[in-house]
Amino acid sequence: MNSKKVFVFFPDGVGLRNFAFTNFKTIGEQMGFDITYWNNTVFSLQDNLGFKEVKINNHQIHPLTPLYSRARKRAELNVSRDKFKDDVYPTYKFPFNYKGLKNTFKSLYTKWLIGLYSSEKGVEKIRQKINSLERQNPKYAYCKAQLEQHQPDLIFCTTQRATQSISALLAAQDLGIPTVAFVYSWDNVPKAMQVVETDYYCVWSDLMKEEVLKYYPFVKEEQVFVTGTPQFEPHYDDNLKQSREDFFNAYNLDVNKKYICYSGDDETTSPLDQYYLEDLANAVRSLNRKGENLGIIYRKCPVDFTSRYDAVLEAHKDIIEVLDPIWKPIGDQWNQVLPAKEDFNMLYNVCEHSEFVTNVCSSTVFDFVAHNKPCIYYNYEQPQLKKGIRDIGQNYKYVHFRSMPSDKAAVFCTNKHDLEGLVKQILDGQLSNVEEGKQWYEIVVGKAPTEASKNIWSAINTILNK
């Protein structure tokens, strides 16, 4: 039996869903690991879940780290643009903020850094500079003292993209403790979101491994383990399934209706998202006049706190049922809106009991494909689009959408006037993306979506036995 002590490190709350609310811990314990959660979040794993934890109460980062990190990301994107001769990379950049003297100074200083470091050697230097800054950060000494006290054999970091993790991981590496980072999301690698440098990486799929090696030549092949992601494991847990009647009763849905799920997006990705919901409502209303009995389940983006949908929801309250994700704000930042374990149950049953899902470029296509349900992607401009509002069309040009095996991996609606017809064809079984969607799912998520937690622990075991 293995008795190695592993710290599962949460620099922020985004990893809770994958690594606290799934069976990840149980599987690790069954394999003999001594698991402690190294917790930098405001969510107490000890109080809420009874997990053994070491709390990090120092949340400092060096004052210059955010500026250098922004510059690092833009410099990396510039390198990718020039290296791969591809203009998609500048579209990942957020605009600079020039509101007020402080923001203007920060933006100008960041631009100066970008000018200095926009080369492969420059990116390496800026990473070294960030590490140097974070070793001066009081949090470095704080985390080092915790590690010296508890002496873990390995640190598993649940996301590669949090600046809060840099000093802690540097402390571990300086003590000779192996570090592993999980690459959190399907689009993260091409977007230059690798904030940390660890000894090893766990990735979803062969595709993601190829991307890590392509964009980060300092990473060697033997440092990358293809494991899958625990994100989709709950979709294969039959214990979560409710009967249609029980689920509909729980959320006051009409058992006589067929429901289409509208999965909302964040305001950055889809600033006019409410109008696509309105288009779907109008299509459903028209089909109901022709003899259908349809409704819409609106499941908002968990980190969207805007009121932009309110008018549409009010105007179509006879058609749209709002099923908010079971997420809870525990702070005032987007990454302090944390999922509750109960949300797995809700999402499973929304997928299971909806006819299909519609959204703008969301990874929920994979959640629904896991339940053999189709997905419509909206890909047309809204008349409300004007200068200064981001066109959703650029989303589909991003690198991660190039992983689609064909344009049939999702049902694309490219004209508002086609939406009603597409909805009708899917309902009648004449149109589906499920077969091609499953091929895409395997490319992105990997070949064994039910084995991710086990694979990660196996990778950790391999690393510890080196």
From TrEMBL:
Pfam families: Glyphos_transf
Keywords of the record: Transferase
Flavoprotein listed as a keyword: no
Molecular function per GO: CDP-glycerol glycerophosphotransferase activity
Spans through the membrane: none
Gene3D superfamilies, alphabetized: 3.40.50.12580
Domain of life: Bacteria
GO CC, any one term: membrane
Protein name: CDP-glycerol:poly(Glycerophosphate) glycerophosphotransferase
Organism from which the protein derives: Olleya aquimaris
